[in-house]
Each structure stands twice: as structure tokens, then as C-alpha cells.
Amino acid sequence: GAVVSQHPSRVICKSGTSVKIECRSLDFQATTMFWYRQFPKQSLMLMATSNEGSKATYEQGVEKDKFLINHASLTLSTLTVTSAHPEDSSFYICSARTPTSGGGNEQFFGPGTRLTVL
Amino acid sequence: AQSVAQPEDQVNVAEGNPLTVKCTYSVSGNPYLFWYVQYPNRGLQFLLKYITGDNLVKGSYGFEAEFNKSQTSFHLKKPSALVSDSALYFCAVRAVYNFNKFYFGSGTKLNVKP
Predict the structure, then answer these.
(1) Which of A5, B13, B54, B95 has the fewest beta carbons closer than 10 A?
(2) Mean per-residue pLDDT for A1-26?
(3) Is pLDDT of B75 > 50?
């Protein structure tokens, strides 16, 4: 299957700093990538859909100025958590869908990034 | 609205016994259903999907799932559980109006004991 990587896998930062998380599709081109947030013992919550060459589409309740998404190329999307606060601590997971047609294509997930804001 | 429900937070089974992880869905139109597995501090791994056709879908690692339209269920099954199957399992349904949007269940923690 398609491989998606994330970097870093774990980051600890001080409150008020910004953190960038990278998501890469390693063996395919992903015109669309997705960013999820997962709280402990809870399901994934879709934050935004990242489209190459255009603005990201954010889900209701997600602050676009807080969570900046840039889909700079067909293999890279970045999520920047700006002015991070302890409540932003979470597990962030990206995914990508292969560009073949049809709605039955599964999403391929990255390994996730554990963000801890002190 | 689309949604999936996983009624069990946790399932415990002995190694070698069959396992079932339950999932029910609510969707207008034909559902596209998925199962994913998550190991600690890892992303989700795709197990199997139902789009159309045979109601019994076979996937990775010996897992299978049965689509039941009348009961709106898509339970995950395996004939003989392994300790290494212990993980968090998510059922998901794809939105009818948006190919990109997946709705995930709350997850079921599977514990397989030796």
C-alpha cells in the first residue's frame, strides 16, 4: 500500500512557540491530504482537508489562524500550530488519498506526531 | 448525516478463540465502510473495506467483515485471535456527499490474552 510519513514523531515545546509538522506521501502523489487530531482514548477528529495549490478546507470549530496548513507540493503538506498552548497537546495524524477516481479509496495514514506543550 | 457507532469500548478474548468487533452505521445512500487498526503511538493501518458486491469482505492479517444491510452493521471478525492482534480498532464510513470525509467510530480496544 501507499506510504505516508510524518516528521517529527514527537515534539515538546514551550507555550507560545510555533510547531511545524510535516506529512509526506513517499511513493505516490497526493493532491489531497488530511489532518486529524486524536485525544487520548478517543477517535480521530478531522481538522482540515489540505489541497495542493489551494487553500485548506477547515472543519467547523477549527481555527484556521491557529492551525496553518500549507500543501506546497504533491507530496508534502505541513501543519503549523501557532502560539501553541497546553490545550493543543494532542496526537496529530495526517493521511492521504491516492489520486485514482472513485469514492472507495481508503486513506493512508501517517504514523502520527505527539505534541506536548509545556 | 453519516455516522458509525462502536458499542464496545473494549473486547477481551483468549488467544485462539474467534473475535468480533462490532460496528453499526448510519448513512443515506449506499455506504462505503472501512476498518482500521491502530497500535500504540502509531497511525492507522487499513484492514479492509466494503464498497459493493459480496457481503463478506476479507482483509489483511486474516481479518474479515460482514456487511449486513438490514441490520446496518459491519462487524469485524477473525476466526482465531492472536496476542499480536491486541490494538485499537476503528470503523469508518465515507461521507456520501464528500469522497474525502471519513467519519470514524469511537474505537474498540481489543485485548487478546495468551
Answers:
(1) B54
(2) 93
(3) yes
